[in-house]
Every structure is written in structure tokens, then in C-alpha cells.
Amino acid sequence: MFWTILFIILFIAGVVCIAWLVYQKWTELRLLDPASVPVSADKKKKQELIRQRIERTGRKYAIKAQKDVIKPLGGGLQTIFRIIAGKLTAAERRYQQQKHQKAALEGDLRIVDTLLEEAYKFIDEQIWDLAEKKLIQVISLDAHNKDAYEHLGRVYLANKDYESAKETFEYLNKLSVDDPSVIASLGEVAEKLGDTEGCVAYFEKAVELSPKNPKYLDFYLESVIETGDVHTAMNVLDKLIEVNPDNNKIHNFEVRIEDIRKKHKKK
């Protein structure tokens, strides 16, 4: 009974100490003047801003209280204090995230640009997990950043996470309708997933949108040869020779098409 009462007294004393330290800095909290919020903002928003400021300032002085007051009072109270401090830390993280989001919404793209540069660096170094993390951060700030989605899809492809790559490129295809680069990427994913029919359809669409792109013609020809369609393969090969006559794969394509032709004759 004695220890229970003592514990309660120590707990109350700790809470009072924290309250006193926050009160001492009340003038700092008032730096956030609700009147500075636009007139169109409602009362609830102003209260939320003040609450966040109090949480952040409270965390600062809670740490000081833990060091100077609570630590000497015993382990039980320290445990409770750590729970409180943990919540204040979470509040600080929320504030930082909201600050970054606000910066992006206000047109300050410096954060996004920096994150993209870091992501490209990790991609060049083939550090896929860190590249993915940076790209997801970009998307959390700018949900319509097409470059971020495209590179994220490429990261998933390189990392052989084909389902995630498919979802990423399908969403990007909604943001960039009829973008041959995105459609060709969906063709690559379909090929990895063993969807030959889908693979051919995507590459054919990419060639329709960009008929003189040797990369898309190459992809399309590869997929058509896999289906054994000699007639279509010859037509695509002719277009590839016209667009890129120095392509060192042309001879190999000719040999493969001829092999398919011979197999058809034997049947």
C-alpha cells in the first residue's frame, strides 16, 4: 500500500514538472498566432495547428524533464514517461511529414528534385531497395509524378518483382494515356510473367504510337517470333531494317525466322 501511494505521488510530481516546464515556455507557443491562418480556414484547423505546436514544444521540454527530474525518481515512472515521450516523438514525425507535403503543394519542388536525384543515383548503383524508398517518398509528396512511377516500375522489373512492376505501370498508364514508353514497359512485364499474347499486344501498340522507334520494333519482333507468326515477323523485320539498318541483331532475326519457316514446312 505504501509503495502504491508513493508511486502515485511520484507520477503526479513528474506530470506537474512537465506541465511547469511547458508553461515556462508558453510565450514560445504563442508565436503561432491563429490570426495568421487565412480567413477561409475554420476554427478546427487553427486548433489543430496550436495542438501540434504544443506537442512539439512539449516534447522538447519533456526530454529535459526526463533528464533533470524524472530519472532520479525510479524505474516505474521512467517507463510511463517513455510512453509519453514516444507519443511526442510521433507527433514530431507527423509534423515533419506534413511540412514536406505542404512544401510540395505550394510548388516548392526542391525536395522532390533532391529525392529524385538520390533515387537515380541508387538506380545507377543498382541499390534497388534504397532507390525504391526514395521514389516512394517522391510519390508521397507528388502523387502524379510520372518520372517517379516509371523509374519505380523499372526498379521492380530489375528486382524481379513483376507483379509490383505491373501494378505500377498500369497506374502510370492511366496518368499517361497512350505513352509508348509506358506501354512498352507493360509489354516487358507481360513477357516476364509468361503472358505471350499480352506481350505482343503491348509491343504492337507501342509500335503503332511510335513506328520509327527501333527499340519498340525490336521488342515487337522478339515477341512475334516467339509466337511463330512468320508473316508478321517478316513485316516487322522489314520495318526494323528500314529504321535501323545497322542493327547487329538483324542477321539473328533472319535466321530465327527462317528456322520457323522450315518447321512449318515439315508439318
Automatic annotation (TrEMBL):
This is Uncharacterized protein. GO terms for molecular function: mitochondrion targeting sequence binding; protein transmembrane transporter activity. GO terms for cellular component: membrane. Pfam families: TPR_8 (PF13181). TPR repeats lie at residues 146-179, 180-213. One of its GO terms (biological process) is protein import into mitochondrial matrix. It comes from the Bacteria. The keyword Chaperone does not apply. The chain crosses the membrane at residues 6-23. SUPFAM superfamilies: TPR-like (SSF48452). PANTHER family: MITOCHONDRIAL IMPORT RECEPTOR SUBUNIT TOM70. Keywords: Membrane, Repeat, TPR repeat, Transmembrane, Transmembrane helix. Belongs to the Tom70 family. Coiled coil: none annotated. It is found in: Membrane. It comes from Candidatus Uhrbacteria bacterium GW2011_GWC1_41_20.
